[in-house]
Sequence to fold (343 residues):
Amino acid sequence: MVRVSAPGKVHLIGEHAVVYGEPAILAAVGRRTYVSIEKFKDITYVDLAWPDISHTWTVEKVFELTQQALDIWNTCNEEKNFSELFNFIKKNGYEGYRASILGIAMKRLGISDGFSIRIDSKLPACAGLGSSASRAVAITMSIAKFFNKKISLKEVNDIAYEQEKIIHGTPGGGDNSACCFGGLIWFKKAQPKNEIKSLRKVIPYKLPNFVLVYLGQLKKTTGELVQLVRDLNEDYRNERVKKIGKMTYEMLDALKKRNFKKVKEIINLTQKNLAELGVSTSEIDRIAEVVREIGGAAKLCGAGGGGTMLCYHKDTKRLLNLIKNLGYEPLKTELAVKGVRIE
Fold:
């Protein structure tokens, strides 16, 4: 048996502004997806997040479903509408998605033997924590190691990006990069290729004293929340987008200098601007306010509208007690942790 894990990710700063060409900083988060793989005649897939749904396929069936997904993706990409793909992958407990992420890795690695794969993720889905990217990275590395295939982290990341296309259509590539390489990732949309680079050389340390607060699955999709911002008055929107972009550069400088007073200030100002863009909620606003009142910082993560919040306070125990008293189960974590690893 081989067991592999990969971290999730959070946006430390830059969500929504990144859509308009501003940079973002993503952090590998200390909550991980664990994948175990064993020999089996056919292919079985179990994900403990959905224990009532399991799959057993022949290798041929996995390749058939994978090709279907890739063909639909190509058609959807030409039409700039991925509705048909999303309908396909959701059928039968996301069978098309689950089979194709295995099939993509198998094809790229030259594998046609069976195996049994078991996934245990400590990341809630649809929460802005990169749960699908974490799964993709861990699954790819586990298959490669189980079949003794030499593979670089870059190759793992490239395969994970192809897998992410099946669930997201046209992903940016930042999520899988953070989950694969770990640490902090600088991300900026660009043509012909997005700018994605590790910040490990300039920020080699883990970021302590952070707490995640899971608020439940988003009530709106990421696409709907992005559209909500797009529909704002252009001058109003751009003013706040530019502010977030400027603060992303300031965040990079503050992290290099280990100036966590400045980091805290930037997190709170980022939340203010995201709230003004309309992607916060009354629940998020209330939590952010009480965290600020005790001298901490808090912001929404990802698209907003629910999902997960990122909170910071130099006295982690006090922050944890505050969150518990508000009725939530906080998740203490470090940021900028190691990427994919063999357990």
About this structure: Residues 5 and 34 are 4 Å apart (CA to CA). The longest strand covers residues 24-39. The mean pLDDT is 94.
